[in-house]
Design brief:
A two-stranded antiparallel sheet has the order 1-2. It folds into 3 domains: 46 residues, no CATH class; 36 residues; 55 residues, no CATH class. 28% of the residues lie in helices and 12% in strands. It contains 3 helices and 6 strands. This is DZANK-type domain-containing protein.
Length: 144
């Protein structure tokens, strides 16, 4: 009698692992398999399509650098292999506040619209050697 209960629980866990492989809730499928039957849960999983995960959705998921498993974007370590995530490098471009074109983070003048943008406060950035600009009658910057 005891082996039936143990095998029921083991096969329910197997159904949960199979659900995880199809991007479905492990806990939900284990509970379903325990309540109904592990065989019914496995048959349902076989006929239901896998849940599609939008890998290109920015900010929702991040891939583990070690095993490639997807996890929440704000996770500090992988839920499957336990590898720690490192912070992504800071961006090297930003949007110009006037024309919304991409410019370098260190830029103080937009190369697209020619307007002076706020100087970034980046450590080690020397901008004192750059010429001062004024705006002439044309509205375009003029170097003194």
């Amino acid at each position: 009698m005891g082996w039936i209960v143990i095998s029921w629980i083991v096969f329910a866990v197997v159904a949960g692992i199979a659900a995880s492989a199809r991007n479905r809730s492990v806990v939900g499928w284990v509970l379903l398999a325990l309540l109904l039957s592990p065989l019914v849960a496995l048959i349902l999983l076989a006929f239901l399509p896998a849940v599609k995960v939008e890998e290109d959705a920015p900010g929702r998921f991040t891939a583990c650098p070690e095993c490639g498993a997807l996890g929440p974007a704000k996770a500090l370590k992988c839920g499957k292999c336990g590898a720690e995530f490192t912070a992504p490098p800071p961006p090297d471009t930003r949007a110009c506040p006037f024309c919304a074109e991409e410019i370098k983070v260190a830029a103080i003048v937009c190369k697209h619209c020619g307007r002076e943008v706020a100087r970034p406060s980046l450590p080690g950035l020397e901008v004192s050697h750059l010429p001062l600009e004024t705006y002439g009658a044309s509205g375009r910057p003029e170097v003194r």
